[in-house]
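Would you be willing to look carefully at the protein I have copied below?

:::
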Amino acid sequence: MCDISIISPVYMADAIVDELVSRISDSVQRISEKYEIVLVEDGSSDQSWKKIKSNCYKDSRIKGVRLSRNFGQHCAITAGLKIATGNCVVVLDCDLQDDPIYIADLVKRHKEGFDVVYTRRKKRRFGLIKNLFTRLFYKIYNYLVSDVFAKGTDLVGGYSLISRKVVNAYLEVGDYRRQYLMIIKWLGFRHSFIEIEHAERHSGRSSYSVKKLIQHGIDGITSHSVKLLNLMTYFGFLLSSLSFIAGITLIISYLYTPFQAGWTSIFVLILFIGGIIISCVGVCGIYIGRIFEQAKGRPMYLIDETINVEH
């Protein structure tokens, strides 16, 4: 085992890999010479794997893992955690928006007795749409899911340090649909934060489109809470109660002031009720789909090739 492992999932980042490795190495060498850098290439169509191999051949402490296809960032992180041997593990994105220079601060806080050290960004430097979506998602998430630190959650990023104990606990979680940060929060353990500056992306653009961000949000909520199903049930009872009250009101109104009902109100009411029913069925369908995926028992990822990894 080494003192510290650094894991970074790599996707469509051939222009960043060399700089990423250089910055991580410069930062971690100030802490210990017994370290490893695990780069997990997540099915990129560019030259990312070629860049990773080049760095692995230069230094055996750099380990390359190539997945058979794109399984997603969080499965790539899981693959890295499975391979990492460090007494503590740092996870960070490959885009260098989270500077590796903060690794020393993460380790320092870990040595104070914390099993998990999160980073809280002073300001997110994403695009307007992604920033708005992130804030909205965490407001909904904090309402639907029991969160361990609701205040400022939208500023907490995946750049974090976890102890070997937490790594082992994380790998015991068998969720097929997973999100690294949310599982770490669910695990508990003693945690702390450090403040960091969020930088501009080194090069290229994020692979997360608006569609992917929405899917990411749906996965996070439905994988960690059934409160959405409960809300649909409560809403159904509410509509039933309102319908009963409206029916009594119409009967009384008809007895005292006869009127001729219009088609518009009936049409709107049918559309409204129909929309609610379809939405409820859709929510149930999402959860059933998650059950189907989990029941198949397929692996979260498949490894195509590794370099400097002892099997």
User: Anything to note?
Assistant: The chain has a mean pLDDT of 80. Strands lie at 4-10, 35-41, 62-67, 88-91, 116-121, 156-163, 191-196, 303-307. The two ends are 14 Å apart (CA to CA).
